[in-house]
Amino acid sequence: MPEVILTGPEGRIEGRYQPGLVPRAPVAILLQPHPAQGTMNHPIVLALYQSFVRRGFATLRFNFRGVGRSQGTFDNGIGELSDAASALDWLQQFNPEAHTTWVGGFSFGAWIGMQLLMRRPEIKGFISIAPPANMYDFTFLAPCPSSGIIVDGENDEVVPPPAVLKLVDKLKTQRHITIEHQTIPGANHFFQNEMVELMAVVDGYLDMRLANGGR
Fold first, then answer.
1. What per-residue confidence (pLDDT) applies to 100?
2. 3-state secondary structure 94-162
3. pLDDT tens digits along 11-26
4. 164 near 133, Cβ under 8 Å?
5. Is the peptide bond before 19 cis (omega within 30 degrees of 0)?
6. Distance (Å, rounded) from C-alpha 93 to C-alpha 36?
7. Which of 56, 58, 64 is nearest to 38 (CA)?
8. Taking Cα atoms as reference points, which of 63, 75, 79, 74 lies closest to residue 13?
9. Contact residues for 97 (Cβ-Cβ < 8 A; gap 6+)
10. Do 27 and 58 touch, CB atoms closer than 8 A?
């Protein structure tokens, strides 16, 4: 889990990077929650990172501007999207022959991740955990260009499940993509007592997609 320092729009970006197991390995970038909720070391982000690493992906997680050793100040999503784009550029620079790209994020990071996939057609899959559909505008997903999974908690006190369901229903009307949706019984926004159940859903979805060649 080597530490890496990237150059972003505001200077230094602190990250952790695990190279892929084989040449042309797929790549994955994982995005932290809002800085008020955590860093790239948040348990959910770390679990996502480890899930992709176990499957041989070249995998990167990093701190947004103003978090940890990353330079800059919080920018309400605009600068953070630029940070994510720079981090993906860095990841692809070291993996120019990667055959597919995935993005995963938790809460605020899920919102940034879904904006990133709208701008980067090479992203073929996403994992969006507790996307803050009641707090931020998701209308940019018109249409959503990639298949993926959205996971939320039944007792999410930050993002009410009906807000997530509304987003899922909108995305499911689009052709040529498949949006999976799973609600974890009893889970709050942070899945504090349901991490095992959360990652079982994520791992099952990843294995299903990878068995189909990532499609």
1. 94
2. HCCCCCCEEEEEECHHHHHHHHHHHHCCCEEEEEEECCCCCCCCCCCCCCCCCEEEEEEECCCCCCCHH
3. 999 999 999 999 899 9
4. yes
5. no
6. 31
7. 64
8. 63
9. 23, 24
10. yes
Residue environment code for 184-211, b if the CB has 16+ CB neighbours within 10 A, otherwise e: beebbbbbeebeebbbebbeebbeebbe
Quick one: tokens of 133?
């559909």
Domain limits, the chain: 3-211
CATH superfamily of 3-211: Alpha/Beta hydrolase fold, catalytic domain (3.40.50.1820)
Place of tokens 């998701």: 138
Cβ–Cβ under 8 Å, residues 109 and 36: no
Does the pLDDT of residue 77 top 90, yes or no?
yes
Write the DSSP symbol of residue 195. Answer: H
Helix or strand or coil: residue 43?
A: helix
pLDDT at 214: 58
Residue 176: band (very low, low, confident or very high) from pLDDT cuts 50, 70, 90: confident
What is the enclosing helix (H) or strand (E) of 53?
helix 43-54
Given the DSSP bridges, would you call strands 101-106 and 27-31 parallel, antiparallel or unpaired?
Answer: parallel
